[in-house]
Design a protein that fits this description.
By secondary structure, the chain is mostly helical. It contains four helices and no strands. The radius of gyration is 10 Å and the shape is globular.
Length: 52
């Protein structure tokens, strides 16, 4: 897991929406989608709840 994914994971476990996370990380929503999908695959989960 890279630093961006770790940062995203911490924020995803909070109450922020994906668009809010994108703004706070200075990334586009599409980049956040890719980061999310990568983590879902690496951690073998299918939803945001599985990340927590």
């Amino acid at each position: 897991m890279n630093d961006r994914e770790k940062d995203f994971l911490q924020r995803a476990c909070s109450e922020f929406t994906y668009n809010e996370i994108a703004g706070k990380m200075f990334l586009s929503p599409k980049t956040i989608d890719g980061c999310r999908n990568s983590l879902f695959e690496k951690l073998q989960v299918k939803s945001r709840v599985g990340l927590a």
